[in-house]
Amino acid sequence: MSPSPQTPIAVLARPRVSGRLDRLVSAHPLTVVAAPAGAGKTTAIRQLTGRRSERCAWLTVEPMLDDQAALASALCDLVGGTATRAVLSAGVSDPARLAAALADDLEVRPVLVVIDDAHLVRSGAARSMLRVLAERIGPSSRLLIAARGTAPLALGRLRSLGRVAEVGGEDLRFTADEGRTLANLLGVEADADALGVATDGSPALLRLALLAGGAGVAPVFDYLAQEILDALEPRVCRALEDSSVLAVFDPDTVAAVTGCDDPSGVLEQALAAGLPLITASGPPRAHDLLRELLLARVLRRRGRDGVRELHRRAAHALDDDLAAAGHLLAAGEPERAAALIESRARTELAGGVVQIPDAMIAALPAAQRKRPWIRLLRAARELQRGAAEEKKIAQLVSKAAASRTSAR
Fold it and tell me: Minimal CA–CA distance to 112: which of 156, 59, 164?
């Protein structure tokens, strides 16, 4: 029986997370925990196993197990299955037969099988075996698979049958209370709330930021670089660095800016590697800390002029005038940026709704802010602020009058 990994020193007990995992595992034959590196998958699952009554067979995948027979043999050693050993002894390597034998062995007596780092299962045959096992596992045992990015499973059918529970990075984030408790547990004096926001509640990143104290987020950058970025293919890493000038990872725009011929493949590899990308709504975007690191790396590799060229390409590729103007400002071309803002100002002023942000107007050099339509735009923004202030004052007066009337 392989023991679960040792819990790091001073790990915060999180009954909120382990309790939810416990309920999900009890209700579903398969539970998938898929989240970026540092999301706290392994620690959360280890805390879960302490709550369970059945025995736990824990397998941490290594590159040598990226083969259906090797993977089946490792699981068989943990579970102690006779059916799987017989099939392996007969020289059978068919993924479906191996998975069926494992499923039979798992029904002999209840066991919680944990397969950690399942993203390292990359071969088609080994993945096929895991998929069949996930479909065949019976009511007595439970299978829990943890992976960076996406798990190597086809979950559509299992979802439709209600046989799988899924836990993502957002479910593992630290709450503000948990962040403050962790700071106390570590014995550090730091603004846990601010660091929690900066790290998006990522357990590993928040811990590093708290331990860094006055050093800021430098250790977080080291972690992201050493743990994830440096392990990617160089072309993938370069494409991610170059695309960091963009607010979101839109494949067409990424291709235009970086010259990458397979932007969707780059995104898939980034997700599979467990990079902290936010995919909840709209096109994927990098976590702020990741983007800051990528921008620093591309500046070091391309230099300031090279980064400006990336911004020029972005401005040319984008249809949104304001987004393009922002890139032109970053490219050191304020005249072209002002022309786009002025064109947008004509449209907005004619429609009576001004949405161009003050920060973009303020970023223009003084000479460009003197353009006629931009002057009108600035005046309209001042009127908007004045009207809003008058409305706020009127509301306060109305409330005060109402309070005096009710007091009488």
Answer: 59
